[in-house]
Amino acid sequence: MIKTRGLTKRYGALTAVDGLDLDVREGDVYGFLGANGSGKTTTVRMLLGLVLATSGDIEVDGEVMPGAAARVLPRVGALVEGPAAYGHLSGRTNLMLLDASGGGSSRSTRKRRVGEALERVGLSAVGRRPVRAYSLGMRQRLGLAAALLREPRLLVLDEPTNGLDPQGIREIRELLLALNARGTTVFLSSHLLAEVEQLCTRVGVLDRGRLVMQDELATVRAPTGRVVVRTPDADQVAGVIGRGVVHRDSDVVVVDGLDAPTLNAELVKAGLRVSELGPERRTLEQVVLEAAERAGSTGVLR
Q1: Cα dihedral 278, 195, 22, 74 sign
Q2: Are residues 206 and 229 located together in one domain of the fold?
Q3: What is the DSSP secondary-structure string of 44-64?
Q4: Are residues 208 and 266 in the same domain?
Q5: Residue 54 — very low, low, confident or very high, per pLDDT cuts 50/70/90?
């Protein structure tokens, strides 16, 4: 759905994006991760033809960009750097004007489609309110409604939950998952690791303009082969296990070289209390930080 080869953008002596090889497959919910200033938004703007690349190739939905933009962009919904709108007009009117600018539909069809988009993002009750009275979160929802107007094959979203409260974030997550289940590919640029971890199937990590990791989320978070034991008897557990302990803090012991059933049997035999025992999996935060460290970065994502 999105492929880039050697995608590079320079601003004078500054290289904002450096030799990027993206591979976003049809049906993905792809999390594009990176610290602020890592080049995520510049990449998104190049994908949509809003900024010209210095070098490299871009394909979106099987066609070369930006040359095929007139054919490709009607199949793409996008929200980049916050939504633009006429503040004195209502959210509904803004969407009607946006839809009319694309042509190809009657006013009655347009009205129905706008109403459905507002409903999907939770703005039906305030659709007739002037946009200047909207909160930041409501403006984000309006921008997402605009991206959904034409049932896109591909959604390209840059920080879509910016300004939303936890309830709003959950609603947008559920909406994106429902759209994906119906066949929409989602490319989501974000620095919110917890949100990406709950939503995405594949991830790419951008560090100072370079793609330092790209893989299935399930693969990068697969069991490490070690076992995590949560216990109020950490000192005693560590004593029983001995050299197999690779990490210990107040109530957690990480063990290497023993499978979970064998370890559990030993701890039961020793009469030690265990509140939880299972395979160790790296968090997405650990994965991202390790990828950045391998690339020599000092940047931190939050």
Answers
A1: positive
A2: no
A3: HHHHTTSS--SEEEEEETTEE
A4: no
A5: very high
Whether residues 31 and 73 fall in one domain:
yes
Ramachandran region of residue 281, left (φ > 0), alpha (ψ -120 to 50) or beta? beta
Clarify whether residues 92 and 198 are in a common domain.
yes
SS3 222: coil
Cα–Cα distance measured from residue 125 to residue 54, given in angstroms and rounded to the nearest whole number: 45
What distance in Å separates the CA atoms of residue 300 and residue 128, rounded to the nearest whole number? 41
Q: Are 98 and 201 found together in one domain?
A: yes
Q: What is the pTM of this model?
A: 0.83
Q: What is the rounded distance in angstroms from the CA atom of residue 295 to the CA atom of residue 289?
A: 10
Residue 155's DSSP bridge partners are: 77, 186
Is residue 209 located within the same domain as residue 228? no
Beta strands of 83-153 (E only): which ranges? Answer: none
- By the 8 A CB rule, do 186 and 14 touch? no
Q: Are residues 87 and 213 in the same domain?
A: yes
Tell me the per-residue pLDDT of 147-159, one tens digit each, with 9 for 90 and over.
998 889 999 999 8
Domain that residue 265 falls in: 224-280
Residues 211 and 231 in one domain: no
Question: Which residues sit opposite 31 in a β-bridge?
Answer: 188, 203
Please state the domain count of the chain.
2
Distance CA(176)–CA(244), nearest Å, equals 43
